[in-house]
Design brief:
Chain lengths: ~400, ~550
C-alpha cells in the first residue's frame, strides 16, 4: 500500500513540482488571467503538434526522438522555397508541407536505419544525428541555395548572390492557420472595444458575461491538433500500433512472433519525422519569422522537455502528458521572467530559468528512468531469496 | 487429421550435424505419430538443442553447413531454412524462457502477430497493418485456446501480474491457437512450475494429445516423463541411446542411460538387472563427512542473482583440505555459487570462512581473506588479454598483497619487474605453459595455456581456499589432464581447500572427495565421489523432489 502510494508520487513528481512553482510564480508575476489564457492558447497552438510527433517512437520503444530536428529542417526547406516562389496563405502552407514530406521521409528512413544499428542507444544517436544533418542543412541553405537550387527573390538571398539570409520574414503565411476561422472570446462589455482594435475581418465572437478582457483563439490550429490526437488514438488501435507496442516492450519476443522489427521501427521514426516537419511549419506560421540557422535547433529540446514535464517518461507517454506538459512548461516561461523581475528586479532570471529547466528536466527524466529500472531489477531479485 | 496412410507425422532418418569438424549429432532416427507424447531426455551437450534447432530451421544450422540425413512430415521430405517455414508446417515450440510481452494481456500475447482485424477501406489502400484490432473477437479466441488446456485464466489479465505457472499456460495456448499446429515441442515446461501447477499442465497436455496433437516433451524431471510420455528417447553425446516405451524403463534406468559413460558400463548393466524400484530410499543424500576439525567454508542460505545461473537457496560445508565438487546441469545455478561467494554478482545469505563471516558483494573482501578464484570466463574475467604473462600472473598478488613491488608503501611504489619475471618463469616451467616467454601477451596463447595462466595467477596468491569454475572447458584432452593433476597435486602438497565447479560429472568424480549436485538453484544432494554415476544422474534429474516439497510451496506463496 505504502509502496503503491510511493510509486504514484514518484511517477508524478515532475508535474507536481511545476504546479507548485507556478502556484507561487503566478501571483508574483501580477499578470491578469485573460493575458495568461491568451498566451497559453497561443503557445498550445504553436507547440502541441511538434510535441505530439514524439509519441509514436516512444510507443515503439525508441525513447524520446531527438531526431525530430530532422523533420523540422525538412519543414524549413519547404517554407524557404514557398517564400521564394511567393505562394501565400493556406495554399502556401500546404505546398510547404508537400515539399517537406518527401525530404522528411528520406531523412526518417536514414535515421531509422542508423537507429536500428544502434539499438538501445536511440536517444543519443538521434541527438548526434541532429547535429550531423544540421551540417548538411546548413550547407544546402548557405551554399547550394541560390547557386544550385534557384532562388530568385533578392530579399531571401545574402548580398553575395547565394545563400539564404539569417532572418526570413514569413509574412505571406503568418497566422494563416491560426486566423483561418477568426474566433474570439470576450466579456460582453469589452467585445466592441476589442473588435475595433483587432481591425479588419469578421470575428466569430463568443460573448461571455462577467469576463474581463478578450481572447483570440487559433481555432483552426486547435482543430488540426485535435485531428492529430484522433489520429494517434486510432493509430494505437491498429495492427501497426499493436506491433509497435509489442516491439517497445520486447524486441526479441516480437521478432520471434514474426513481426518485422526493424521495418516497423523505421516506420515509427518516419511517421515522427514527417509529423515533426508539419509541426515546425505550424510553429513558424505562428511565429511569422524564420531564423534560417537557428529555428530548428531548440525544437527538439523544448518539445522533449515539455513532454517530460507533462509526466511522460522515456518509455511511456500519453496525449494527456502532451497538453499538461505544454501548459505547465509555457506557463512557467510566461510568468517566470516577470516573477523574477518583481522578486529580485532581474528579468534575466526567467530566461536563465528557461534554459536551465529544459536541460535539467531532461537530465532528471533520464536519471529517474535508470533509477526505476534498477528498482524493478531489485524487486525481481527479491524473489530469488527462496527460503532464506 | 488426414493421415489415414501409414506414414508417421514426423520421421527423422539418420540426422547428424557437425559444427566446425566437431560432431554434435550422429545418426538420429525416430518417428512420432499424431496424438503421441514422447519424452526426449539427455544431459547438457547431448545434442537436444541442436536437434531442436534443426527441426525448427534455425539460421544457425544453415550458416554452419546444414545437416545430414532427412526429415519427413506426413511422408513428404522437408528441409526448413527458417523458423517461419517450420511454423507453417505445423511445428510449434514452447521455449524454456518465457517469450511473452509483460505489459500485454493474455489475449494480446496469445494472438501476438495473429490479431483479429476489422476490415477497413484503408487496408486495401495501404496494408493490413492499418486495420484496427477486433478486441472482442480476440478475447473470445484467446478464451477458447485457454479452455482447451482445461485451466481458467482471464484473457484480459496482464501477463506481468500473473503467477509464473499461468505464463507457461499462456505460452502453450499461443501455440494451440495457431490452427495448423500438429506437433508441439516443449522445452523444460515444468522447470518453473510448482508441483500442483505441473500436474495441471501434464493433465492439459494429455488432453491436447487426445485431440490429435503430437507432443515432444523435454524435461529433466524423469518422474514427469514417466507419467506423461508413452515413449522415451534418450540422447547421449550426440547419439540416440534408446527409443522405447516408457513402461519398460524405470526412472533410475533412464538416468543411468543418460549419464552412463564407458567406465560405468558395468554398473549400468547391474542396475538394469536389478530393476531398482524404490528410488527415494536409495537417494536420500547422506553426505559422508570426513572427520576433519572444522569446516573451511560454511555456506548458509546463499542466493545469487547471476543471469542464467540463479542460485536460490544453497547451504553446504566444505572441510579443510578437501576437494569439493559442484556439478549439475547448465543453467541450474552451479556457476552462480562460486561467483556469488567471490562477490562478482549480487548475492545474499551467510558465508563463513574458517568460522568468520565473509562480506558478500565485495570481491576485495573475498580476496583479502586469501580466497582465490579462477573464473569460467577466462578471456573476460580471468585474464588481461593485452598484457604480458608476468603481469597477468602477478597482478592480483600485487593489488591485494602488495607483493612484487619495491619502494615505500602508500608513498611511492613501483613494479619489481625482476621478481615478476622470475615468478612467471617458475610457473611457466612447472605448469608447462607453452609460450615464447613471460613477456608474451596472454591473448596470444591457446585456451589450455590460458587456463594454466589463470591457475598460476591463483596459486601466486597462496590461497587458503581455491574456487575454480569449469577448469577444463574448451581445452584439449592433454591439457585437461595436466590441469586436473596440477589441482590434485597442489591440494596434496599445500593442503589447500579446493572447490571445483564443472559441467563434466566424470571429471568431478575423478578429482573430488565429495560432489554436490545443484538442481534448480538448490543443492539436490551431496555424495561421495565414489558413488555410482547414475545416483548423480538421478540427483541432476530432480529425482529427490519429494525431499524439498516444502520449499517449493513456500516459493510459490
Amino acid at each position: 500500500m505504502i509502496r503503491k502510494l510511493f510509486d504514484i508520487i514518484a511517477n508524478n513528481a515532475v508535474p507536481a513540482v511545476f504546479i507548485i512553482i507556478s502556484a507561487f510564480a503566478i501571483p508574483l508575476s501580477g499578470f491578469s488571467a485573460s493575458y495568461l489564457v491568451q498566451e497559453l492558447l497561443t503557445r498550445i497552438g504553436r507547440n502541441s503538434f511538434l510535441i505530439l510527433s514524439l509519441l509514436i517512437p516512444i510507443m515503439a520503444g525508441m525513447g524520446l526522438n531527438f531526431g525530430m530536428v530532422l523533420g523540422a529542417m525538412a519543414g524549413q526547406i519547404g517554407l524557404l522555397l514557398i517564400c521564394d516562389w511567393g505562394v501565400v496563405g493556406i495554399p502556401g502552407m500546404v505546398l510547404a508541407c508537400l515539399i517537406g514530406t518527401p525530404i522528411a521521409i528520406v531523412l526518417g528512413v536514414f535515421c531509422g536505419h542508423i537507429m536500428n544499428r544502434a539499438k538501445g542507444r536511440e536517444m543519443v544517436t538521434g541527438y548526434i544525428l541532429g547535429f550531423f544533418i544540421n551540417g548538411v542543412y546548413q550547407m544546402t541553405v548557405l551554399y547550394l541555395m541560390g547557386w544550385v537550387i534557384p532562388i530568385t527573390n533578392p530579399n531571401l538571398l545574402l548580398s553575395r548572390g547565394y545563400g539564404v539570409r539569417n532572418a526570413v520574414s514569413l509574412l505571406g503565411i503568418r497566422g494563416v492557420l491560426d486566423n483561418f476561422i477568426p474566433t474570439m472570446i470576450a466579456g460582453t462589455e469589452h467585445s466592441q472595444q476589442f473588435l475595433s482594435i483587432q481591425g479588419s475581418g469578421a470575428f466569430m465572437l463568443l460573448q461571455i458575461p462577467c469576463f474581463n478582457g478578450a481572447i483570440r483563439i487559433p481555432l483552426m490550429t486547435l482543430i488540426v491538433i485535435a485531428l492529430f490526437c484522433v489520429f494517434i488514438i486510432w493509430f494505437r488501435k491498429t495492427k501497426l500500433g499493436q506491433d509497435m507496442r509489442a516491439i517497445g516492450q520486447s524486441q526479441t519476443v516480437a521478432d520471434s512472433a514474426g513481426i518485422a522489427v526493424n521495418r516497423t521501427r523505421i516506420i515509427a521514426i518516419v511517421i515522427s519525422t514527417v509529423l515533426a516537419c508539419y509541426g515546425q511549419i505550424i510553429y513558424l506560421q505562428n511565429m511569422g519569422t524564420l531564423n534560417t540557422y537557428n529555428s530548428h535547433d531548440q525544437a527538439g529540446m523544448f518539445s522533449i522537455a515539455a513532454l517530460l514535464i507533462g509526466g511522460a517518461s522515456v518509455s511511456r507517454a500519453s496525449i494527456a502528458n502532451v497538453f499538461v506538459g505544454v501548459i505547465l512548461f509555457h506557463l512557467m516561461f510566461i510568468v517566470a521572467p516577470m516573477a523574477g523581475k518583481n522578486l529580485i528586479g532581474e528579468a534575466q532570471i526567467g530566461e536563465y530559468f528557461r534554459v536551465f529547466v529544459s536541460y535539467g528536466i531532461i537530465a532528471i527524466a533520464l536519471v529517474l528512468h535508470a533509477w526505476k529500472r534498477n528498482r524493478e531489477r531489485e524487486a525481481a531479485r527479491r524473489s530469488l531469496r527462496g527460503g532464506a | 487429421m488426414s493421415d489415414n496412410n501409414t506414414s508417421p507425422l514426423l520421421e527423422l532418418s539418420h540426422v547428424g550435424k557437425e559444427y566446425y569438424g566437431n560432431r554434435v549429432l550422429s545418426d538420429i532416427s525416430f518417428s512420432i505419430d499424431s496424438g503421441e507424447i514422447i519424452g526426449l531426455v539427455g544431459e547438457n551437450g547431448a545434442g537436444k538443442s541442436t536437434l531442436l534447432n534443426i527441426l525448427f530451421g534455425m539460421p544457425v544450422i544453415a550458416s554452419t553447413g546444414g545437416y545430414e540425413g532427412s526429415i519427413h512430415i506426413d511422408g513428404k521430405s522437408v528441409h526448413f531454412t527458417s523458423p517461419n517455414q517450420a511454423l507453417a508446417a505445423g511445428i510449434g515450440m514452447v521455449h524454456q524462457e518465457f517469450s511473452l510481452i509483460p505489459g500485454f494481456t493474455a489475449a494480446e500475447n496469445i494472438l501476438l502477430n495473429r490479431e483479429v482485424l476489422n476490415g477497413s477501406l484503408m487496408s486495401y489502400v495501404f496494408s493490413e497493418r492499418v486495420s484496427t484490432l477486433d478486441r472482442e473477437a480476440m478475447h473470445n479466441r484467446a478464451n477458447a485456446a485457454i479452455h482447451t488446456l482445461g485451466v481458467n485464466i482471464n484473457p484480459d489479465m496482464v501477463v506481468s501480474e500473473m503467477p509464473v505457472g499461468y505464463k507457461q499456460f499462456i505460452e502453450i495456448a499461443r501455440e494451440i491457437d495457431r490452427k495448423n499446429t500438429r506437433l508441439l515441442f516443449l522445452d523444460e515446461p515444468t522447470a518453473v512450475l510448482t508441483e500442483t501447477e505441473a500436474e495441471i499442465l501434464l493433465t492439459a497436455l494429455k488432453k491436447l494429445a487426445k485431440s490429435g496433437i503430437a507432443i515432444v516433451f523435454i524435461s529433466h524431471r524423469l518422474s514427469e516423463i514417466k507419467e506423461l510420455c508413452s515413449r522415451v528417447v534418450v540422447l547421449r553425446d550426440g547419439k540416440l541411446i534408446t527409443d522405447q516405451p516408457s513402461e519398460e524403463l524405470t526412472t533410475r534406468q533412464i538416468a543411468s542411460l543418460m549419464v552412463g559413460r564407458q567406465n560405468t558400463r558395468r554398473e549400468e548393466h547391474r542396475v538394469i538387472l536389478e530393476k531398482a524400484s524404490d528410488v527415494n530410499e536409495v537417494l536420500s543424500p547422506q553426505p559422508e563427512k570426513k572427520k576433519k576439525p572444522k569446516p573451511a567454508l560454511r555456506v548458509e542460505h546463499l542466493w545469487v542473482d547471476m543471469p542464467g545461473e540463479t542460485v536460490r537457496d544453497v547451504s553446504f560445508e566444505v572441510q579443510k583440505g578437501e576437494i569439493f565438487g559442484i556439478g549439475g546441469l547448465a543453467g541450474h545455478g552451479k556457476l552462480g555459487i562460486p561467483n556469488g561467494i567471490m562477490g562478482l554478482y549480487p548475492a545474499g545469505g551467510k558465508v563463513r570462512l574458517f568460522g568468520k563471516r565473509l562480506t558478500l558483494n565485495r570481491p576485495r573482501a573475498a580476496l583479502s581473506r586469501k580466497m582465490a578464484f579462477v573464473s569460467e570466463d577466462r578471456r573476460g574475467v580471468g585474464l588481461l588479454l593485452d598484457e604480458p604473462l608476468d603481469w597477468n600472473i602477478t597482478f592480483t598478488a600485487m593489488q591485494m598483497q602488495g607483493r612484487f613491488l619495491i619502494g615505500i608503501p602508500y608513498i611511492f611504489q613501483m613494479r619489481n619487474e625482476l621478481a615478476m619475471r622470475s615468478e612467471a618463469k617458475k610457473f611457466i616451467d612447472s605448469l608447462e605453459i607453452k609460450c615464447t616467454g613471460p613477456s608474451q601477451k596472454a591473448g596470444e596463447l591457446s585456451g589450455g595455456n590460458q587456463q594454466k595462466v589463470c591457475l598460476a595467477k591463483a596459486f601466486v596468491l597462496r590461497p587458503n581456499i581455491l574456487l575454480i569454475c569449469e577448469p577444463t572447458r574448451g581445452i584439449d584432452i592433454g591439457a585437461k589432464n595436466l590441469v586436473l593433476d596440477t589441482l590434485k597435486e597442489y591440494n596434496k602438497e599445500n593442503g589447500t581447500t579446493i572447490i571445483i565447479t564443472s559441467s563434466e560429472l566424470e571429471e568431478l568424480r575423478s578429482v573430488c572427495d565429495r560432489v554436490a549436485i545443484v538442481d534448480e538453484g538448490r543443492i539436490a544432494g551431496i555424495l561421495p565421489a565414489s558413488s555410482p554415476a547414475e545416483e548423480f544422474g538421478m540427483l541432476m534429474m530432480g529425482q529427490n523432489k519429494k525431499n524439498n516439497d516444502d520449499e517449493e510451496g513456500e516459493e510459490s506463496a
